[in-house]
Amino acid sequence: MSATQDRAAATTVALLEDLFAGYHPRDFAVRLWNGSALEPETGDAPRFTLVLRHPGALRALLGAPSEVALAEALLFDDVDVEGDAEALIRLGDHLL
């Protein structure tokens, strides 16, 4: 993996930690395009895993935060959800 992609992954994780700082308990995981992951803070199995498929996926998801942006990110395969997709609604409410 290139140094640029390593920096992109580190930047993404730092941004995710900031975004999720007020979301407790964070009972889901996030997996990045390079295989690294942000695990649930509960220590339990994640209710769902948000998969970011490429370095620009978070931007696609949050560029204009709305239900439409989430739908488009899923439709264009920028992100995927593994597990309980209904549990994503609470996260969406937090981010909006």
Task: Tell me what the structure shows.
The protein has helices at residues 3-19, 57-62, 67-75, 88-95, and strands at 29-31, 37-38, 48-52, 79-83. The protein is of the alpha+beta class and 96 residues long. Strands 2-1-3-4 form a four-stranded mixed β-sheet. The model has no long low-confidence stretch (mean pLDDT 88). A hairpin with a 5-residue loop joins strand 1 and strand 2. The radius of gyration is 13 Å and the shape is globular.
Given helix and strand content, the structural type is: alpha+beta
Number of helices: 4
Mean pLDDT: 88
Radius of gyration: 13 Å
Strand arrangement across the biggest beta sheet: 2-1-3-4
Q: Which descriptor suits the 3D outline? A: globular
| Helix fraction by DSSP (H/I, runs of at least 4) | 40-55%
Spell out the key features of this protein:
single chain, 96 residues, 4-stranded mixed β-sheet, alpha+beta
Concise synopsis of the structure shown:
By secondary structure, the chain is of the alpha+beta class.
List the helices and strands and how they pair.
Blueprint: H1 3-19, E1 29-31, E2 37-38, E3 48-52, H2 57-62, H3 67-75, E4 79-83, H4 88-95
Parallel strand pairs: 1-3
Antiparallel strand pairs: 1-2, 3-4
